Hints:
The chain is mostly beta strands. It has one helix at about 60, and strands at about 5-10, 15, 40-45. A hairpin with a 5-residue loop joins strand 1 (about 5-10) and strand 2 (about 15). It is extended, with a radius of gyration of 17 Å. The protein starts with a strand and ends in an 18-residue tail after the last helix.
Amino acid sequence: MSAVKITVRKNGPYRVEAPEGSIELVDADGNNFDLTGKTAFSLCRCGGSVNKPFCDGTHSKIGFLGAESAVKKAEETPKA
């Protein structure tokens, strides 16, 4: 099984790293993106890229602030 690594970059894109040919990226209409020769790419998270779904660096120009850390669900206290 191929190892795929996805890194959430602080206030930036999702960085995807995997052996060539091990990832399929499909758009909303079911069309495949050509990832030939790519072992790494970054996916837009800010919504501002003109090259979606890939990052083009717009996040740094628009001051995008992302939530990089998982937030633990607050434990509910039983009501008396």
